[in-house]
């Protein structure tokens, strides 16, 4: 199963519909083909999608929204998905409509899911329920152009959610039946919970090559779980082995960049193996630019990323944009009376312009702090001094 597009209407804090397109919108040249994944015919999807914006622009909220939709499609109960918090400010009986387009078994599918907040009259507890769901499917033979991928106007409805179905839980999508026919859903791992907590998020024996890349002084690092305890064995070259039973204590021996690097790169390895989706917020935290650039390049390299995994990440770091040859894999995020995510290909038609300079110049509008805000801050700091 391959995601092609996700739209979400009715989300709190958003100005308009959130519309994230995985399909490569721009022309695909021969040099681009290694960096993209060919789904079928002349249709390609980006393997790296970035969300760039200033502080408080809404990047994290967008990643949480995508994580929610992707996990819902992957059979998870919407009330058990951590990023369901994006729905918390919905009013009772308000709804959010998620429209998901995906490719599976030589067909394009469109799933429309309606979610509402319900309040228990007895104890006042809140929960989210799926009140309606509809599925359309069409053969890829009917797709003649990129625009026609998402056109289901003349496609008959294939399936509609039956609320009387005895075995269908009210907070689980009908995708559970579709994924069962396909034997499984897809791998999706989001690291959003680790954004503000830089701890090792994976266990195991870490490859010596990764250790050398992040910190050449480490000889080996092995982490395992024994019942409720964690057993960590760390050795630096020329020194005695260190044994730790608290994962937080690892920060006393390793830099924050090394710890994050181990978590991120091992998560990427899992994604490469499964061909799934990896979500990272504020990817540049604790990293230098070259380490982040290396990660991006690995996702674009088909020799490494054999199963065509996709990374979705947010960043404040405009220089990272220069790692991208294409504009259609970049979303510029702004918050102007509501969050907006605009594909860079819509506003910047040329790929050969240096993207970081365009971004930093505020040519796109709202991508750098305003001059007035800067002067006001400067005035206060002068006064304090």
Q: Pick out the low-confidence regions.
A: 367-371
Q: Count every beta strand, where a strand is a DSSP E run of 2 or more residues.
A: 18
Q: Number of helical runs?
A: 8
By secondary-structure content and strand pairing, the structural class works out as alpha+beta
Q: What is the typical, i.e. mean, pLDDT?
A: 86
Described by the principal axes of the CA atoms, the overall outline is: globular
Our measurement of the CA-to-CA distance between the termini, rounded to an integer number of angstroms, reads 59 Å
Q: Please give the radius of gyration in angstroms.
A: 23 Å
Q: Could you give the order of the helices and strands?
A: EEEEEHEEEEHEEHEEEHEHEEEHHH
Q: Describe the largest sheet.
A: 6 strands, antiparallel
Strand order in space, largest sheet? 2-1-6-7-8-9
């Amino acid at each position: 199963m391959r995601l092609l597009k996700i739209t979400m209407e009715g989300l709190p804090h958003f100005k308009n519909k959130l519309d994230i397109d995985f399909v490569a919108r721009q022309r695909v040249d021969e040099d681009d083909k290694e960096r993209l994944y060919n789904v079928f015919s002349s249709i390609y999807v980006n393997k790296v999608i970035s969300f760039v914006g200033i502080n408080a622009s809404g990047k994290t909220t967008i990643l949480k929204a995508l994580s929610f939709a992707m996990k819902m499609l992957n059979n998870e109960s919407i009330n058990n998905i951590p990023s369901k918090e994006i729905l918390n400010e919905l009013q009772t009986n308000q709804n959010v409509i998620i429209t998901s387009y995906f490719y599976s078994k030589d067909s394009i599918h469109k799933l429309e899911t309606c979610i509402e907040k319900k309040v228990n009259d007895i104890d006042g507890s809140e929960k989210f329920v799926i009140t309606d769901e509809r599925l359309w499917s069409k053969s890829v033979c009917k797709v003649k152009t990129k625009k026609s991928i998402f056109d289901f106007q003349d496609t008959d409805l294939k399936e509609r959610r039956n609320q009387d179905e005895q075995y269908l839980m009210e907070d689980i999508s009908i995708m559970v039946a579709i994924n069962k026919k396909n034997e499984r859903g897809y791998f999706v791992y989001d690291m959003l919970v680790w954004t503000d907590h830089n701890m090792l998020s994976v266990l195991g024996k870490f490859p010596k090559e990764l250790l050398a890349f992040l910190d050449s002084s480490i000889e080996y690092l092995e982490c395992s779980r024994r019942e409720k305890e964690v057993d960590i064995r760390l050795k630096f070259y020329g020194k005695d082995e260190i044994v730790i039973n608290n994962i937080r204590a690892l920060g006393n021996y390793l830099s924050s960049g090394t710890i994050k690097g181990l978590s991120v790169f091992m998560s990427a390895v899992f994604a490469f193996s499964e061909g799934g989706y990896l979500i990272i917020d504020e990817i540049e935290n604790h990293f230098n630019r070259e380490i982040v650039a290396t990660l991006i390049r690995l996702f674009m390299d088909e020799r490494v990323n054999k199963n065509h995994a996709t990374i979705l990440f947010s960043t404040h770091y405009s220089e990272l944009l220069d790692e991208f040859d294409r504009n259609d894999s970049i979303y510029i995020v702004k918050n102007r009376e509501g969050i907006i995510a605009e594909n860079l290909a819509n506003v910047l038609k040329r790929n050969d312009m240096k993207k970081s300079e365009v971004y930093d110049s505020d040519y796109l509008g709202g991508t750098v702090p305003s001059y007035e805000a800067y002067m006001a801050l400067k005035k206060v700091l002068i006064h304090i001094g």
